[in-house]
Design brief:
By secondary structure, the chain is α/β, with parallel strands linked by helices. Helices cover 34% and strands 14% of the residues.
């Protein structure tokens, strides 16, 4: 039985009819193959227009609750009963862990690696840049950014990385990604699953887990007071070594030039050996100038350089960058064609303007 509330302005008549018939079908009050009133008869019965019934029936037809059989009428469709999994009712009560449940005022010393200096963040400048970049007269603002990122931003990044970190690259080698994990996913896609990944021990645990999930064989190599022990890698080919030479995470070791030369020489001996240089917080040096990147002294094109703006600007920006060596750039272009940029165009433009200012 359908009951209509004429005074309910928030629920149109067709929606009330559709909802009540749908619930009767789901509850079993209208069994499979049951014939329901024709549109004209239903309109007369409820005292509404045929158009109202037509709209309600059309929605039920599109969702598969009823079917129209020519010269016979409308019938309830046959469907199986939805089977709920065991303990489904208990699972509904499961609460996700809350990561932000600590009251900020109670924190006396914050040692989190993703901390932000809220007091000194340039909110006004960032707000102004967002407003200026979101320009309705620029019709391209609604389009996706190119796969590797906006060309202007990549050109700026090439200059910035050379001046600040000694990285030698063309803008075509730079890929802009939505955080380090996004870039590791791209990199894992470029390096086939037969490629072994070697990590420092101890290491940034998320990177270790990520490579494992992507199907790579992952080995841990001990770290001494100069960084990763290169002698443990001699037997391997088709391998990529994930290291943080400027500021080893979590020990804070800076790899000296002797060990840097050693690992570069190791990589140059085989064509399928790579070094993944994660330079995640290289900007922060308190008692000396920033250490030049490993990529800047690489002569064999074996270093994959990675960095992020999570530390220098804010983690919420979710923009990181990766510099591929020339020999991997062609692999990227071949394997990654058809994918889209994971970073929004407006974020590209705002960051570009922020660097320029």
């Amino acid at each position: 039985m359908i009951i209509l509330k004429q005074e309910d302005k928030n629920s149109p008549l067709y929606l009330q009819i559709y909802s009540q018939i749908k619930e009767d079908i789901k509850n079993g009050n209208l069994a499979s193959h049951t014939k329901i009133y024709s549109k004209r008869k239903m309109a007369t019965h409820l005292g509404v227009s045929i158009n109202t019934i037509d709209t309600a029936y059309s929605q039920l037809l599109s969702e598969g609750f009823i079917e129209s059989i020519p010269r016979k009428g409308y019938f309830v469709c046959e469907m199986d009963e939805l089977v709920l999994p065991i303990n489904a009712t208990e699972e509904k009560n499961i609460k996700l862990p809350e990561h932000n449940n600590i009251i900020q005022n109670e924190i006396k010393a914050d040692f989190a690696t993703n901390g932000v200096d809220v007091e000194n963040f340039p909110f006004n400048a960032w707000r102004r840049l967002i407003k200026n970049c979101f320009n309705e007269y620029d019709r391209n603002i609604l389009n996706c950014s190119p796969l590797q990122g906006e060309k202007t931003l990549r050109e700026l990044m090439a200059k910035y990385l050379y001046q600040s970190r000694g990285v030698n690259c063309r803008s075509e080698q730079i890929i802009i990604g939505a955080g380090t994990d996004n870039l590791l996913q791209i990199l894992s896609y470029i390096l086939d699953n037969q490629c072994t990944i070697a990590t420092e021990n101890p290491v940034y645990h998320e990177a270790y887990l990520f490579f494992k999930r992507m199907g790579h064989k992952v080995i841990s190599v001990p770290v001494d007071h100069h960084g990763i022990q290169v002698s443990k890698l001699e037997e391997y080919k088709n391998i990529a070594v994930y290291i943080t030479p400027s500021h080893q995470f979590p020990l804070g070791i800076t790899m000296p030039i002797s060990r840097r030369i050693q690992i570069l020489n190791w990589a140059s001996k085989e064509n399928d050996r790579y070094i993944i240089e994660d330079d995640y917080d290289s900007e922060f040096r308190y008692n000396s100038k920033p250490i030049p990147s490993l990529q800047g002294i690489d002569c064999s094109g074996s270093v994959i350089y990675m960095g992020t703006f999570s530390k220098s600007i804010a983690p919420s920006l979710r923009i990181s960058y990766m510099v591929l060596p020339e020999k991997l750039l062609s692999v990227f272009n071949a394997k990654y064609t058809g994918f889209s940029s994971a970073v929004s165009k407006i974020d590209h433009l705002v960051l570009t303007e922020f660097i320029c200012k």
